[in-house]
Write a structure and sequence with these properties.
With 233 residues, the protein is an all-alpha fold. It is built from 12 helices and no strands.
């Protein structure tokens, strides 16, 4: 008959043997008694962290609902092209800048950054436009790429073609797709050409032709590619 390993069945002893179970409970109680301050301090800290996390999320969710209601009039002014009222409010309703400062951390404030960035771009205040658009972030396939492209536009208007190229490329490569990426690549190519970087522009045109063959920009990309290739030769 095989000899039983002394460690074998130790877990079962805790279940099957009441004396062993009582001994283990006593040891645990002694540990808690010796380490009372540290143990209960840790538990209290854990409760504060967990409670704080859920409490903060609940607070932000409620704050976001209020912010969305407050932002309604500002968006209405934005869509009506009343940009100053959209940005600064009308005395009774908050403007986009108020939403951003008063409801920081909410989804509404984040979206207000996008609207404010576009409003400043329309007002030709390119520095402010860039600041607000850079504070906006989204996982949306359309809006985040659009924000990058608008930053590129703002840099283009300031003749800062290097930064324009950088943001147009970010827009083109963000969740790359045949619907929006080719248009951003065309913008990047133009910025490269402004920098006299023919190779950079050629790469953009070639990517459109090779990777997005059914995009509406393909014919223009082919023409510009041929033009630059002829110059290079």
């Amino acid at each position: 008959m095989a000899k039983k390993d002394k460690n074998q069945g130790q877990g079962n002893d805790l279940i099957e043997n009441p004396e062993v179970l009582a001994e283990e409970i006593t040891k645990f109680e002694q540990f808690l008694e010796k380490n009372k301050t540290a143990t209960f301090g840790f538990v209290a800290l854990l409760l504060i962290v967990v409670g704080g996390y859920f409490g903060y999320n609940y607070y932000i969710e409620g704050k976001n609902k209020v912010a969305q209601t407050e932002m309604f009039q500002a968006v209405y002014y934005f869509e009506a092209d009343s940009l100053d009222l959209a940005l600064d409010g009308d005395g009774n309703n908050l403007g986009l800048k108020d939403i951003i400062s008063d409801y920081r951390g909410t989804a509404a404030a984040n979206l207000a950054n996008f609207y404010a960035g576009v409003a400043f771009l329309k007002k030709e205040d390119y520095v402010s436009s860039i600041l607000y658009l850079e504070d906006f972030s989204s996982s949306d396939i359309l809006v985040q790429a659009k924000a990058y492209a608008l930053i590129g536009d703002a840099y283009m208007q300031q003749n800062d073609f290097q930064n324009a190229v950088s943001y147009y490329n970010k827009a083109a490569s963000y969740k790359e797709n045949k619907y929006f990426s080719p248009g951003y690549l065309m913008k990047a190519a133009l910025a490269y050409e402004k920098l006299n970087d023919k190779q950079g522009a050629l790469k953009c045109y070639e990517k459109i032709v090779n990777d997005f063959s059914d995009a509406s920009e393909v014919n223009d990309a082919k023409k510009h590619k041929a033009r630059l290739s002829a110059k290079a030769s």
